[in-house]
Structures are given as C-alpha cells and as structure tokens.
Amino acid sequence: MRPEVLRLERVSYKRDGMLTLDNLEMTVLQGEIVGFEPVNSYGLSSLLRVILFNQPLYYGYVYYLEKKVNSWQDMRRTPNNIAVIGPRSSLVEGQTVMTNVFVLRRGFHQEILRPSLLRAQLEPFLSETGMHLDPDRYADSLTPFERVQAELLRAVVSGSHLVILREIGSVISEKELKEFHSILRHYAKKGMSFLYISPHFEELAQISERVLIFSEGTVVASLLPDRVNSRSQGEQVALTYSEEYHRKMVHHLRERTHEAGTDTLFEMRDICSGELQHLSLRVRRGEHLALQCLDSQIYLDLVRLVKGETRRWRGSIILNGEPVSMTDDRRIAVITDRPDRTMLFDSMSYIDNLCFTSDRKVRGFWLKRGIRKSIRSECEPILGAAAFSKRVRDLTDMEKYELVYTRILLQKPELVLIIQPFKGADARLRQRIWELQEALIDRGATLVLLAVNMADCLAIANRVIRIDGDMTIREYREDRFGELPLTIPLISLYEEESYE
C-alpha cells in the first residue's frame, strides 16, 4: 500500500467563532492526483489554512508525511512544505525563472551565485518533462502557462511532496492544460502528490485518480477510480450536490426564448495586438456569444485590448456602424474577472458604487436625493434592503457580484463584455452569476463572454467562437454545441438525454 502524504482525521476548525470545517476526513497518498470539487466555497479557505499552516484546531488531527503535525491538543504551529499553484502568480517579478526556481526558495543557503551552475542544474528538469522555459526570462514576461510551469519546478526543487493546484483551468488553455496534465502524471510517477481543486467535474475527471466532493466544510463523497472514469456515473454523483443548479440549467435550455436579431451591433475588423492577429468578427444585436481563446497569450492580448490597457493595436472597433472607444462609451460595459475584487471601491458608499456609471445621458443626475431614493426602491428586489446599509468591504462575495451586475443594469449598455465570468466562483455563486446575466439579457443587452476556459459559459451562450493559437477561428451555433469537446463544463446538457 502506498504511504500517506496527507491525512486529516476528524478535523473541525473555527474561524471568527464560526465552525467552518466540520469533522472532515481526507487522505492523499504518495504519487496520487486527487481531484477536489468544492460544491460551495464555505470552509475552503479554512481547509487550506489548516493544511498549509497548521492553524489551531477545534478538534482533530493532521498528519503530513505520516507524522502528526497538528492536533487540537498541540499548540506548535509551523508551516508544512506544501506548494500552492493558482490563478495568481507567486513568482517574484523582476527576477528570472532560474532565480525564482533555485534562489528564492526555502533552504537555499549559497551566498555566491553561480548562474552557469544553476542553469546546468535546471536543464535536467526541463528535458525530462519537455518544458520549454528560458532560464533567463524574467517572471513578468512569462505567459500564464510558462508561469505555472515555473512554479511547479520550484515546488519540485524545494522538495514539496504535495502540490495544491487551484483552478488551473481558468488561466491556461485546453491545449496547455493537456500538456500540463502530462507533466503532473510524470511527477506523480516519481512520487509527488497533487490535490487538484476545480469547480468542474469534467476537468477533474481528465486527471484524477479519485475525486472528493466538498460541501459546507466537509467531504461528503469520494469517487473511486472506476467511477471517475465512468463519465455518466461520476457526473451523477457530483450533480447530487448541485442538483438545483443543474435543474435550472436544464429548464433554461428548454424554455430559452431569447433570439439574436438580424442586424449587426458590434464588429471587430482586422484587429492586431501582440499575438492577436487579424481578428475579425461580428456580433448580432441580442446575441450571447462565448469567445474562447485556446491560446492563453492571445486571450491576454484580447483582454488588454478590451480593458483599454494597451495602445499598441490596429484595426477597427465598430458599434452600430460607427467607430467607438472601448473605454469611453457608456453604451459598452466591461465586467472584469473577479469583479468583486476589481470593480468596487471601499472609499465610496454602497449607493455611490451602485450608481456612478448610470449617468449615461445626464452626468451626475443620480446625486439628487429623490433619484437615489428611486434607484434604491428599484434595486431592492435584487439586492435586498439590508445591503444598502453595509460598507462595501463587509459585503459577501455574492453581494459584491450583485452590486456590480446591478450597476451595469442601471447603466443600460447595449453591449456587455464579460471576462471569465465564473472564475473563482463556487456552484452557488455560479448560479447567481448566471441569473444576473439573464437579467442583463432581459433588459436587451448583448453579451460577449471572453474566456480561456469555457467554465459555465454554455449556460448562457447561443453561439461559440473558438480561436486557436494560429488564429484559426471555428464557429459553433447552438445546434452544434454537441460537437464541442466533452471536457467542456455543462456540455452534457446538450446531449439529448439531458432533456428527457
């Protein structure tokens, strides 16, 4: 039997006086890739704090490398040598790959650096995995996939026996994800273990030996290898814990009545910016388009263009037949990824956060007391009366998303560009995001969802465009969604038996 790398035994944990982990049991064996699907995010951050930093337990025991490292009776608190790789980079910008991998890690004691020696030490790691990393590249110039590879190499070199992967599919493309999975399998064969966290069973089933289903602060199910490999059985177990979400998706697909118009609302003509070359596309009024970039660098270049973060581009952007600025026209709204972190301002009141983009025709009209009272009355059914008395920093994640989307509703844009709309969201929050997108559609907005990973975009899209690394464009209308790869989340909803 393989040794245990990690074991949590009857772990209960309180944070801010609330029980966030409840009698949790889980193990990770040596050389095992364990999938971990959080049906909701309640308790997930607490679990990571316990695994990584041995936070004080309310009850239970934690074992790492078959040694007890934490218990409810023990107050010794030392971090475990466990690496975390997620959507945010942990590399030090301004330093090279080689420096990040070898020098900026625990246990490095050399006072005099010998770059040629370090470069020679890095080469075997690259050749055995097939990674194409320039040791002298600076961290801030790496593509997302190169960054993830560099972080994995650092974990290998530092001797981490367990690596926690968080939503890797949200930052690298499908093609890169397959290559990364191959690298993970290589290191798993050499004895490294991985806890692979993703909200999508389809992604977990591609790589995991078993999948743990996490809900309300505990593991509620464990899928053994034979069930993971059986797609229908595995999905059924996962859906048991997100039944309401699945039921609403099926109902939506049956009853959807939104249809795109015949006239063109928005165009990109021969757009060039970085790796994004000669992109041309049209979006019809009332359409809901999912635009997926299969190359993560092309995706980043497109996002920078949409957000107005680059001036180095050429081509034409057209709205209603006229050239338009992406950042200065209130007829276009952009919702960034993780808008709860990027689109709200703690220094402004709740009502000001809600209203400040709604003055499309008359600047500052919402500052009048009567208008603010009217807006509050209109928005309370969506936001709840209690939210208006809260500070922005005290809102829950769901309340923050509701605030951002309701602000866009008040803005009344014709076109809404939404970047990675479901990134970082658990099943409950994904359901609410989908409902908020439906509210935009009901108001007549045209949606374009920008994604490197499709996540739950199929729940709302009626057309998909996939852009390959060589700028090959493939288009799928709704009656062809069944031709999309089976690894795309929610693709099973488009199989005939899903509607029975």
Describe the structure.
The protein is an alpha/beta fold and 500 residues long. It has two domains: 4-241, Rossmann fold, CATH 3.40.50.300; 254-499, 3-Layer(aba) Sandwich (Rossmann fold), CATH 3.40.50. The chain is 33% helix and 25% strand. The chain has helices at 44-53, 97-103, 115-129, 144-157, 174-189, 201-207, 225-229, 231-240, 243-255, 296-306, 339-342, 350-355, 369-383, 397-411, 427-442; strands at 4-15, 18-29, 33-38, 59-64, 67-71, 82-85, 162-166, 193-197, 210-215, 218-223, 264-273, 276-284, 288-293, 314-319, 322-323, 332-335, 415-419, 446-451, 463-467, 473-477. β11 and β12 (276-284) form a beta hairpin. α2 (97-103) runs parallel beside α4 (144-157) and α14 runs parallel beside α15. The longest helix has 16 residues, at 174-189. Mean pLDDT is 86; it is low at 496-500.
Secondary-structure map:
Blueprint: E1 4-15, E2 18-29, E3 33-38, H1 44-53, E4 59-64, E5 67-71, E6 82-85, H2 97-103, H3 115-129, H4 144-157, E7 162-166, H5 174-189, E8 193-197, H6 201-207, E9 210-215, E10 218-223, H7 225-229, H8 231-240, H9 243-255, E11 264-273, E12 276-284, E13 288-293, H10 296-306, E14 314-319, E15 322-323, E16 332-335, H11 339-342, H12 350-355, H13 369-383, H14 397-411, E17 415-419, H15 427-442, E18 446-451, E19 463-467, E20 473-477
Parallel strand pairs: 3-8, 3-9, 6-7, 7-8, 13-18, 13-19, 16-17, 17-18
Antiparallel strand pairs: 1-2, 1-4, 4-5, 9-10, 11-12, 11-14, 14-15, 19-20
